[in-house]
Write a structure and sequence with these properties.
Keywords: Hydrolase, Lipid degradation, Lipid metabolism. This is Patatin-like phospholipase. Pfam families: Patatin. By secondary structure, this protein is of the alpha/beta class. It has a single domain, classed as Cytosolic phospholipase A2 catalytic domain (3-Layer(aba) Sandwich), CATH 3.40.1090. The chain contains 13 helices and 13 strands. The strands form 2 sheets. Strands 1, 2, 5, 6, 7, 8, 9, 10, 11, 12 and 13 form an 11-stranded mixed beta sheet that branches. Strands 3-4 form a two-stranded antiparallel ribbon. Helix 4 crosses helix 6 and helix 12 packs across helix 13. The relative contact order is 0.17.
């Protein structure tokens, strides 16, 4: 019997192979996504899940990653091929060659290959069917500077507009997925309905709000939410060279910040306790049913969050689409997920719906090293 879950998938380029491994393990262990959101490479993974032909998620993810993994050159050491994708990735992007117009460039690459890859490998009729799976991706609007979620579903009492956040129900196409990963200056903005969009990770690399807007009341109470964290940054030594400086700066930019957004000194658990107290106090009160109250109650779903974190991002790992790099991160993701499920199985029932974090570096030195 399948176990329902929700997924939040971060951006991180080739680091997304870790997500590929995590989701593969979860599905093979009987977990079935009910709702999934992603950003950048997480959007590509999420689309491969929701748009999996014949509903075969494991095969769909494998086919997508085989398409965007570079073939191994036999004349070069496998461990030394991480930077080859900087020259292009035939099913993902191609480098521009119109050098005569270089002064007017707004990007170094063209993402047309990924539009074709998505259209060829995925079932977009299924992806747009919320009865099959609720699905959303985020992008950053160059018009507002804020985050926009494009989704096939909007839950009752969802927050469709708040500050810089927008939620739009749309007929999703490959362009919506590519928009979520249009990271400048490498990739150009993607235009949708007259508005240009860049990578959603520029606004938030952990699209929690996007997922919450897909949940109905019964989901908020009990649906497990798996977050895959590609940029853990705690407990690391200071950088000692410019390459490490750049790697750490990227990790800090895209790290998972949702832990710090709620509860202050009390942390997320304290925040959830207060939300539960507010729910009880508001029963029968006129504030109950207001948009602000509805959103606070939607945040109660965070009690069901489980975070599976990778090892710290390696130097250049975000563009390492070599067979060696992708296979290593895939293996690390599977190991991290299986380790998490083992711990979950041995938890007391009363604690299984509380926030749990499993870090790849706690699994084994060998597996963590391969993901790095």
């Amino acid at each position: 019997m399948s176990k329902p879950m929700a997924l939040i998938l971060q951006g991180g380029g080739a680091l997304g192979a870790f997500e590929y491994g995590v989701v593969t393990a979860l599905v093979e262990e009987g977990w079935q996504p009910k709702a999934v959101t992603g950003v950048s490479i997480g959007a590509i993974n999420a689309a491969s899940i929701a748009g999996a032909k014949d509903g075969d998620i494991v095969t769909s993810l494998r086919t997508m990653w085989e398409a965007i993994t570079l073939p191994q050159l036999p004349i070069w050491p496998a461990t030394q091929q991480a930077d080859f994708s900087l020259l292009g990735n035939p099913n993902f992007w191609r480098s521009r060659t119109d050098y005569w117009d270089a002064l007017n460039w707004t990007s170094y690459c063209d993402t047309a290959p990924m539009l074709n890859t998505l259209a060829t490998l995925l079932d977009f009729d299924q992806l747009n069917n919320p009865d099959h799976m609720r699905f959303g991706v985020t992008a950053t609007s160059l018009n507002t500077g804020g985050q926009v979620t494009f989704s096939n579903y909007t839950a009752s009492n969802a927050q469709k507009r708040s500050g810089q956040l927008r939620a739009k129900r749309a007929q999703l196409t490959p362009s919506h997925i590519v928009a979520s990963g249009s990271l400048p200056p490498g990739f150009p903005a993607t235009t949708i309905d007259g508005t240009d969009y860049w990578d959603g990770g520029l606004f938030s690399n952990t699209p929690v709000d996007s997922l919450l807007n897909l949940l109905e009341p019964e989901d908020i109470e009990t649906l497990p939410i798996f977050v895959v964290d590609l940029f853990p940054t705690d407990g690391q030594a200071s950088p000692v060279n410019l390459q490490e400086v750049n790697t750490r700066a990227i990790a800090l930019q895209y790290q998972n910040r949702f832990w710090d957004q709620y509860g202050g000194d009390a942390g997320l658990d304290g925040f959830l306790t207060v939300l539960e107290q507010i729910r009880k106090l508001a029963a029968g009160n006129e504030v109950e049913g207001s948009p602000a109250f509805d959103w606070l109650m939607r945040l109660r779903a965070l009690k069901n969050v489980h975070v599976i974190a990778s090892a710290p991002a390696p130097a250049g790992g975000d563009h390492d689409f070599s067979q060696y790099g992708v296979r290593g991160r895939f293996a690390a993701g599977k190991a991290a997920a299986l380790n998490y499920l083992s711990r979950l199985e041995h938890q007391a029932p009363a604690t299984q719906n509380s926030v749990t974090r499993v870090d790849a570096k706690h699994i084994s030195r060998s597996v963590a090293a391969r993901s790095a």
